[in-house]
Amino acid sequence: MKKVLLASASLLALSTFAPAKAADLAARPYTKAPAPLAAVYNWTGFYLGAVGGYAQENASGDPKMKGGFVGGTVGYNWQTSNIVFGLEADGAWADVNASATALGITVASKTDALGTVRGRVGVAFDQVLLYATGGYAWIDNKISVTALGLTVSDSKFHSGWTAGAGVEAFIAPQWSVKGEYLYRSLAGETYFGGAVPTGTLNFHSIQFGVNYHFGGPVVAKY
Fold this sequence. Notes:
Number of domains: 1
Helix content: 10-25%
């Protein structure tokens, strides 16, 4: 009889507990596991890089100055939302030249250095930036005249403006590559004490570069 009573009491307790436990489990809301965090690129920061390209004088007929250049870049970007503002300066050694000979006299013009200081504004699509750019441009140019085996030359610094557009993309957390087109317009100068004046020098240039971004651009997560 004692065993029967104990068994009945156990069944009664179990039957009371089971519905309560089931109700408690049913009342708990289902929580979905959070999605994995994804890294996004933020373009804000300081960078250094190398640049090289090709320039050709915008002139009708020949000879026209043309040739390559290689140098370095320094800049800083600020990003707000997906809009990127920046300042950039570059300088390069160049071999952009042309020459003509008539009546035994050869006249050559050679740009042996060039550079810019520009603003940039663009739209970032995560790790890809499309931008417009413009600002100050300069070249160091030399004109040489050779006759009867003798050569005289004079160098002048030309200042002007530049404008263009480009695309830049990260290929690693701190490394990006870019390509851009620039139109450069440089004011004329007078050489050899005013004996040889030049008009405005205009150039089309295409340049490519690689930049190292300090601190790393992958800083935001969502």
